[in-house]
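Data deposition worksheet. Section B asks for the primary sequence of the deposited chain exactly as it was used as input, without tags or linkers unless they were present during the calculation. Section C holds the resulting structure in token form. Section D is free text for depositor observations; keep each observation to a single sentence. Incomplete worksheets are returned to the depositor.
Section A, Depositor: J.P.
Section B:
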Amino acid sequence: MENDNNFISYLGSKKIDAGKFKGAEPELYQKLEGVFAQTHPDSFTAQKLFLINPIRRKYLLEDQEEIVPSKPKMKFKPKLK
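Section C:
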């Protein structure tokens, strides 16, 4: 059960909705979860990178919106002599 939570958090870190993915493609989900249990997450990413990207496009996690702080715009102030 702990590994399942790790895999779900891993999918979340890759912006993949685990619920949608598991519901739509349970065989692929189980296969990837089994490989994930046997490898380090970085190694898993390196091995399955070409699978992760299409899965992310299909099952994009929309709940997490990243808020990027806007940088203040620099205004040019001329020096008058």
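Section D:
Residues 17 and 75 are 42 Å apart (CA to CA).
Residues 41-58 form the longest helix (18 residues).
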